[in-house]
Amino acid sequence: MDPASYQPTRQSGNPTEPSMGRIEFEPRNYRPLNPPERVLMAPGPSNLPPAVLQAMSAPLLGYFDPEYFKIMDEVMDLLRYVFQTKNQVTFSVPATGGAGMEAALVNVIEPGDNVVVGVTGFFAGRMVEIAKRCGAKVFPVTTEWGKAIDLEEMQKALETHKPKVVATVHGETSTGVEQPVAEIGRMVRDAGAYMVLDTVASLGGPQVKVDEWLVDVCYSGSQKCLSAPPGLAPITFSDRAVQMIRSRKTPVQSWYFDITMHERYWIDPRVYHHTGPALMVFALREALRLVYEEGLEARERRHQVTSDALVAGLTAMGLKMFADPAHRLSSVTSVWIPDGVDDMKIRRGLLNKFNIEITGGLGDFKGKMWRIGLMGYSCKASNVLLFLAALETLLRAEGVSVPSGIQAAGEIITKA
Length: 416
Ligand SMILES: Cc1ncc(COP(=O)(O)O)c(C=O)c1O
Known about the structure:
By secondary structure, the chain is α/β, with parallel strands linked by helices. The chain has helices at about 50-55, 65-85, 95-110, 120-135, 150-160, 180-190, 240-245, 260-265, 280-295, 295-315, 345-355, 380-395, 405-415; strands at about 15-20, 20-25, 40, 90-95, 115-120, 135-140, 165-170, 170, 175-180, 195-200, 215-220, 235, 330-335, 355, 360, 370-375. The protein has two domains: about 50-295, Aspartate Aminotransferase, domain 2 (3-Layer(aba) Sandwich); about 295-415, Aspartate Aminotransferase, domain 1. The strands form five sheets. It has a seven-stranded mixed sheet with strand order 4-12-11-10-7-5-6, sandwiched between helices. Strand 1 and strand 2 (about 20-25) form a beta hairpin. The N and C termini lie far apart (about 50 Å). Bound molecules: pyridoxal-5'-phosphate.
């Protein structure tokens, strides 16, 4: 049917006045869905590889189909590979990265527990809020945005508060900083506490070594460096964390996120907990297969080289980086907006004229910082060159004379 001649078969649109108990809708002409193709360079979501998109048009399977169970088993294996863990309890929770955070914290925290949170930006601030809602006594170890956690401050907090749980974020998306997680993991284990780690902005890009870093609970999101659509939260629990959860004095505050029930669906005895979101799980399975094919080291190198090229290009243009160079996260680059430049004008130009999405600063840094994601399938040299060319063009159109950054970026890419 010609979409232009389509007429809805029933009344639809904005509700107007109810009459005789029926809601009237103004007629509207709903055309077939046709979103624009963007170059997704915000810190998530990233663009989807064709294999992942294709997986979402595979035939749907029921949540108890033996063929679906086989795919779930593969997803668990592949997640153990990307998390670099032998943990049995490793699967995905059917909601976004924030649900991974919630699931991690509600399972390990009981009311009255002492919890230390390493806060280096917006997302660790959210951990504080969730831990408080779990009834914990929360002790943030706060660092200025743009810097990594101060290890001495963390050690002091461990000695003073003797926490049961320590939580922090590996790649802080709001600042573009990567935390020294290996060191923190050792300190936390020596203090006899359980370590919770957010890897929403890193898993599938910079490596995440759950077992080597002594992390007890680690979660992520499907939509960033893994390049699956948003909507799943991969998560893994160490055996010692699972034992602790099984011996809780109080039930997990959230029925839906009680991990022992997810375990009974994903692993054994495979009883119903929720309707498995099969197409999303297929997409994640394909995204993980692509990570496996590329290899974790090669993938980490690709993220590093591509973001080095971006930083070289921006620096050559005279822009200043936000994150401490000693702890720069390869998947998210944060850069100060040059004085006098209107954040939204440039970002609107990038989107409307060049189809490129980046994002701005959060909290106090709104209007002052841009954040550029190079994640998973979006992390490629061609995106860096396109973005630099677009940014230069838009800045010059605003009367800001900047040198070109393309040569500097190109040199890093060709040398690698
Ligand atoms: C580090 C970090 N944690 C948690 C989240 C929340 O993830 P979601 O938006 O998928 O719920 C994000 C989202 O950007 C994030 O970057």
